[in-house]
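quick one, 768 residues, struct below
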Amino acid sequence: MTVRGILTVYAGTALLLAVLLLVSGSLDHRYPLPLEEDFSSVVTDVAGQPLRSFTNASEQWRYPITDNQLGDNYKALLIGYEDRWFYRHPGVNPLAMLRAGWQNVSAGRVISGGSTLTMQVARLLDPHERSLSGKLKQVLRAFQLEWHLSKTEILNLYINRAPFGGTLSGVQAASYSYFGKPANALSDAQAALLAVLPQAPSRWRPDRYPQAARQARDKVLRRMAELQLWPQARVEDALTEPVVSLNRKAVRLAPLLARRLRSECPECGQIQTLIRRDLQQGVEAVLRQQSRRFPEGVSAAVLVMDNRDGAVQVYAGSADFLNSDRFGHVDMVQAVRSPGSTLKPFLFGMALEDGLIHSQSLLSDAPRYRQAYRPANFSGGFNGPVSATEALQRSLNIPAVQLLEAFGAERFASRLRNGGLQLSGPGARQPNVAMILGGVGTTLESLVGSYSALARQGNAIRPRLQPETPQQTRYLLSPGAAWVTWKMLAGPLKRLQRSQQFHNRWPLAWKTGTSYGFREAWAIGVSQQRTIGVWVGRPDGSAAPGLSGRSSAAPLLFKIHRLLGGSKEAPLPMPDNVTQEAICWPAGSAADALLNQQNNNCMRQQQAWVIDGQVPRTLHSEALQQTVWLDRATGLRVEPACSDAAMQQQRYSLWPRPLEPWLLPQWRRAGRLPAASSACRYLTGEQQAIRITSLPDAAQLLSRSGQLRLDLQAQGGSGNRFWYDNGRYLGRSSAGGKLVYKDIPRGKHQLSVVDEQGNADRLSFVVR
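---
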């Protein structure tokens, strides 16, 4: 053809294009472009890997993606193989159309369409028959697209709507489904397959026809070398990669988190989380395995948060999402439940900050006489004198109530709220001492955020589910109080029996809790890097006898801690204002202040963590330091009002009266204070110590009919007697009367009595 002929063809083509553009513009109003989007939703982990997907209204998998989210390899392959002149033509490539027409006429059948990417988008938006009229319709739609949209917008329509087999629509859905990765992470070979797959999606699917898929893929790769778009070496490397496709079964990780986030943003196509996929998979597997040991209907939930920025790395709202018998569809991360004893560390931390206690302060685990609220310990019975650390580690109820009464329930609730902990229920509206044993409601998510304060110098951080969520921190404790509380809780499961050296290397502080009626079991662990929260129970709120934080939730916590590599973490560094000091019981003062005194006032020495060098005295309602006058000649106790003899003062440290049954005889008041002079009658008239007379200590009782009864009586003391069995309040008797105890169950018992002055006695017995 001559140059003039070529120019004539181009002029005619240009005229034709001008006419078509004019026609498309005039028809635009009557036939608007069907650009409505109908995307699926995909929830991804922090790296963009899919966790769970939701189909669109047409039951298709179509995830939104833009051209700047494509890998450079896929974009180059798509343009190079499908439409090299995409950025130059006006929607239709005349030379390609002429070439396709000549090939079809020569072959007597349609073997080439000459379609551009724009024309393929036109067909995807408005399908047509394979006919001349259909092709004309496609061409007009292509011009219409070019008229209204940029090349980038047209490309985005293609990569979101191209068919990839079955219900897969768009390259992102295909990449996730076939290869388990986003489109920007495809290898050259994978990208080549997805570039050609829309031409024959049913015949080249890699999951069904890997050989056919490989042939199609290799054709694309060789074309890149022929056109010198890629070096031959790069193509050869890609050709050696086998065609491997994943099982197209829908991914379902963190399903309850995915459901939660999608309900918050139903129009969102891609929802990114901060979940770490590998950790999520591991924790879900542990949960499914562990749940097989749970009673029927019992589920579990786990939340793992990075302490540095609050990123939630694991979100398992139930033990098994598909298990309806365990209410797997109920998200227990958000459910409001009684926290049991899990609020105790915050109380001890606030008391440390206020200077009410140090880590080894003497607390009383003894019957609460003259008190309307008489809680029992989970294990039953009383333990007498306990340190603050022991009381917290063993989760003893009575010392915690003693501490809350000194701190103030209203103040405690207010501090918790200001620190970011969500509280609900009647106990939150009118706080009282019962809240420290679970008399309020909160969530696992909120607890995890608050516990992180122990590893964050006292500043709690709110758990973050998505990258765009800003960090929100709240002051909860001072840095010193947070560290000492963490240290008090740090140790292995049998921490009281392990060496101090082992404690110093232990990286995890943890606390368990069991709500009233065995409804919830909790375990929260805090290391330098992460906070781990575990809940176990029935989602319907019913009781599960035998459920407890120590036996049900703690084993899960430790398994997950090991799974996350927590055993390799280092303990928290100690703040500069925290020191270790020797202190003395019962006064609680520094040892050097008591060791040089007379009368052995330092009866038991402890090593305590103290803040800013402050060593608070033992917290108790009665005076534990007593000054007495002694007759210099006889050494007997006297008073100036009843004796003219030469006297001297002596100062004695005394233990709280309710603790006397647990003390050595020489540490009790009768053994500590000198005998009174007969000249001072009111001193000699002091009441004798109370003593249970119903049965001897360590008695063995036999119950043949299951209806054993005892007449509970005591001698000495003053006023009414208040009786307890294994920490459970039985009732009261008069000074000379008795209390009938009926239907005594079999097993070990600890019987305690307290009079109105606080004098107490205890003994143990066994019913067989």
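The longest strand covers residues 747-755.
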